[in-house]
Amino acid sequence: MRDTTMLHPEDRAAVLVEALPYIQDYYGQTVVVKYGGNAMINEELKEAVIRDMVLLSLVGVRVVVVHGGGPEISGMLKKIGKESRFVNGLRYTDQETMDIVQMVLCGKVNKDLVTLLARAGGKGMGLAGMDGGLFLAKKLVEADGTEYGCVGDITEVNPAPVTDLLDAGYIPVVSSVAGGLDGEAAYNVNADTAAAKLAIALKAKKLILLTDVRGLLRDPKDDATLIRSLKVSEVPALVKSGVISGGMIPKVECCVEAVRNGVERANIQDGRVKHSVLMELLSDDGVGTMIH
Asked: Which residues, in sequence order, are CB contacts of 126 under 8 Å at separation 6+?
C-alpha cells in the first residue's frame, strides 16, 4: 500500500480499489504473522504493525499473531545480573532463564500487544503456547548431543484455542512457549517454528515472517538482488550454492515446511518497513520473498 498522505482523493480511491480483489481473496481466510525483530522494538514500527493487524481483521481476515521477545528477555536477564548465553544461535535456557522467558513472553510482551490492539480499535486476546495444550514440545537435542536446556522442539499443536478466539472475532496473540511432554513443565520454542506449525494446523492461507532484512538476497550486501518469488523445489540448490545460509536457513525451512503441509504461500519480509504486512497482502507489488 502506498503512502497516501500526499495523494489527491482520486489517487487515494485508486489505492483502495487496488486492494479490493486482495480483500476479497483473503476474506474469511487465516493469515499467521510472526512478529519480532526491530518491528517489535521501534515504537513507530510497532504502531504500524498493530494498525495493519486491526485493519485486516476489520475487513474480514482471520489474523493470528505469534511473537517472540528476545531483546526483552535479554534486557530482563541483564536487570537481574544474569548473562545471556547462546549456543548455535539459540538462547541457552536454564531453569532460571526459563522463568524469565515465561514472565516476559507470556506476561509483559503478550499483554502489551493485546493492549496496543485495543487502543487501535481491535480485539486482541493473549494466549501462552501452553494454554489449552496449544503447543506441546520435547527437549531439543541435536544429533551430536548438543542441547540447550529448556528449549523445546514442538511435536504437537492443538489449534482449538486459537480457532475459538478467531470464531469469536478476536485477534489471537500467541507467545512462543510450549508445554512439556517430557521432563520440564514448559519449554522456550523458536517463534518462527511456532508460527509455521500453527499456520499448518490452522490450514492458513498465508504465513508471514517479519524479520530485519528485505527478504532472501542473492547477495546479502545488495538489496537489489532480492529474490521475490521462490518455489520450494528451488530451495535445495540455493542452500547448496550458499545463497541461503546462516540464520536464513531455519527461516526458509519453516516456510518450506508450511507450504509442503498445505499453507498456500509463505513470506519472509522486512518488518522495518512501515505497513509491510498490508503492502504484501493488499497491493499488486507485495514485498519480501514469497515461497510457494
From this structure: 106, 110, 111, 113, 114, 173, 175
- Locate cell 498456500: which residue? 264
What is the Cα–Cα distance from 187 to 176, expressed in whole angstroms? Answer: 9
Closest to 170 measured CA to CA, from 47, 63, 89, 251:
63
CA-to-CA distance for 98 and 146, rounded, in angstroms?
18
Task: Give tens-digit pLDDT for 116-149.
Answer: 999 999 999 999 999 999 999 999 999 999 999 9
| DSSP codes joined into one string, 132-199 | GG-EEEEEEE-TTS-EEEEEEEEEEE--HHHHHHHHTT-EEEEESEEEESSSSSEEE--HHHHHHHHH
> Are residues 265 and 290 in contact, defined by beta-carbon separation less than 8 angstroms?
yes
List pLDDT tens digits, range 65-111. Answer: 999 998 899 999 999 999 999 988 889 999 999 999 999 999 999 99
- Which of these, 289, 290, 281, lies nearest to 61 by C-alpha position? 281
Cβ neighbours for 90, distance < 8 A, ≥ 6 positions apart: 140, 148, 151, 190
For the whole model, what pTM was predicted? Answer: 0.94
Rounded-to-integer distance, Cα 46 and Cα 203, Å: 27
List active site positions: 34, 37, 70, 192, 251
- Amino acid identity at 251: K
Size of the chain, expressed as the number of residues it contains: 292
**Cell (9 digits) for 44:** 513507530
Count the helix, strand and coil residues of the chain and give each as a percent rounded to the nearest 5: 45, 25, 30
* Residue type for position 32: V
